[in-house]
Design a protein that fits this description.
about 160 residues; mainly beta; Immunoglobulin-like; 3-stranded antiparallel sheet; 1 helix; about 15% helix
């Protein structure tokens, strides 16, 4: 019993020292921790993230607009490919977007439009392409020790064609 109490006390003081040493989470310290939506285990909310518009434009850029049940706060696992065999991975780990900060609910726009550069030539008009993306929203205030924001997440796939370049 005394040994368990002593270990618990050590762990408690370790976290106190860690907190005093590093202080509050800064904007650049946060990282996103996603929990599925809908009926998944540990689900945090309803699903509904979707790509509303997407096009590959001249200058090797993807222009797309996405929406979620509340303003998107981060993207992750973000890849595109086209029917000509080209592909590009924008993100592997989540990245905070849309004005999200280490505060609860700070993402700005319900429909978020952004441009992303890729490393192959923009294919000709009419070429089909696919987008795979994990969207995070409803990001809560980060835990004070680990600086992780719990967000609702959904994996989105969108298939479209190049409108004009």
């Amino acid at each position: 019993m005394k040994q368990t109490y002593f270990i618990s006390l050590l762990v408690f003081f370790f976290f106190i020292i860690l907190k005093k040493t590093y202080g509050e989470c800064r904007s650049d310290d946060c990282w996103v921790d996603g929990y599925g939506c809908g009926n998944m285990p540990r689900a945090r909310g309803r699903c509904g993230a979707q790509v509303l518009y997407a096009n590959l434009i001249s200058g090797n850029k993807l222009n797309f607009t996405i929406s979620a049940p509340s303003a998107p706060g981060a993207f992750g696992h973000f890849t595109i490919s086209d029917d000509l065999g080209n592909w590009h991975r924008f993100l592997k780990s989540p990245m905070i977007v849309n004005g999200q900060r280490c505060d609860s609910g700070t993402a700005q726009y319900q429909k978020y439009t952004s441009l992303w550069a890729f490393d192959f030539q923009t294919p000709p008009a009419g070429t089909w392409f696919d987008i795979w993306l994990t969207v995070y929203w409803d990001c809560g205030k980060p835990s004070p020790v680990w600086c992780d924001m719990d967000c609702t997440q959904e994996i989105v796939h969108h298939r479209d064609y190049v409108k004009s370049t």
